[in-house]
Design goal:
This protein is α+β, with helices and mostly antiparallel strands. It folds into two domains: about 130 residues; about 90 residues, no CATH class. Helices cover about 50% and strands about 15% of the residues. The protein has seven helices and seven strands, in the order E-H-H-H-H-H-E-H-E-E-E-H-E-E. The strands form three sheets. It has a three-stranded antiparallel sheet, with no helix packed on it. Strand 3 and strand 4 form a beta hairpin. Helix 1 runs antiparallel to helix 5. It is elongated. The two termini are about 25 Å apart.
């Protein structure tokens, strides 16, 4: 008769660390809880430096009116006067020429003379006005260009100096924040140091396995009782059941005391969650110890003590 499968099998593995490791781990855990319980402290200082007064002065200069007065040619009035005097002399010369031509034509004082004189005066005056306007425009354009160039130069200088000043103040703020962060993280850094030291310290550990089962056993666990004990087993009906009754078979090696191949396996009716058991196959036992194997219901079972 085949052995019944266990209704439940439990294997427990216990790992024991050295006492000093247990004590250090507990101390680290206590420190971690203390650090985690500390209240949150926020940095209250400035995090970003304010714009410098030099930069603000540059912005004000850009927004203010353009001062062109200082850039006008101080000789513009003299230049304009000389140009207009020259134009006026040209006007008088033109009038004298008209007068001479009228006198030669014996039309002096006539209407034709009057018209030509008026036209000459009008053209001359218009030219003088255009000349004055052009001179003034050139002076203005030059003053605007020079004023804008000067303002741009001054703004760039102020912005550059302001940025450098602000950068220096930002470095001080960053240093203050760094010191604050170092102070806040001091305890955590200490914990990390302790954890790293414990992790790098060599130490051993002890592992103990316990296996318990209920109901009838599906077979002996040879990993527990030892392969060398195979010869000494008394005949128990149902032990080492037929290979055909087993599944998930994996060969482990050969028992040096009996010469029998040893396998890890489950019984076909066992759930996949059951741990494997270790033992030989009835077919192999029958070849080496035929007197220890019987047949029952078409299955090979071990019924006697294995011969030495």
């Amino acid at each position: 008769m085949s052995a019944k499968a266990p209704s439940q099998t439990t294997q427990t593995t216990e790992v024991k660390l050295p006492a000093w490791v247990e004590a250090a781990s507990q101390s680290n855990y206590d420190l971690a809880k203390k650090i985690a319980a500390k209240p949150f402290t926020q940095y209250e200082g400035n995090r970003v430096a304010d714009p410098s007064k030099l930069s603000q002065q540059a912005y004000g200069l850009l927004q203010g009116p353009l001062n062109t007065g200082a850039w006008y040619n101080p000789e513009i009035n003299a230049v304009e006067k000389r140009a207009l005097d020259a134009a006026d002399r040209s006007r008088r010369g033109a009038l004298m020429q008209v007068s001479d031509e009228a006198r030669a034509a014996k039309a002096f004082g006539g209407s034709r003379f009057g018209i030509e004189s008026a036209v000459t005066n009008a053209e001359a005056l218009r030219g003088m006005g255009d000349l004055s306007a052009n001179l003034r425009k050139q002076a203005y354009d030059s003053a605007v260009a020079n004023a804008m160039s000067d303002r741009s130069f001054r703004v760039q200088g102020l912005l550059g100096a302001g940025a450098e000043e602000r950068g220096i103040r930002q470095q001080k703020i960053d240093a203050d924040m760094q010191r604050f962060a170092e102070k806040q993280g001091y305890d955590l850094e200490g914990l990390n140091t302790r954890l790293a030291a414990l992790g790098m310290s060599p130490y051993g550990k002890t592992e103990t396995s316990h296996r318990t089962g209920t109901s009838e056993s599906a077979g002996p666990d040879w990993a527990t009782i030892g392969l060398g004990a195979l010869k000494a087993l008394p005949g128990i009906i149902g032990m080492f059941s037929d290979r055909r009754d087993k599944t998930d078979i994996e060969k482990l090696g050969t028992d040096p005391s009996t010469g029998l191949p040893m396998y890890a396996y489950r019984y076909k009716k066992d759930p996949k969650t059951y741990p494997k058991v270790v033992g030989p196959m009835a077919q192999d036992i029958e070849k080496a110890y035929p007197e220890s194997v019987s047949h029952f219901g078409g299955h090979k079972i071990v019924t006697g003590m294995l011969a030495a």
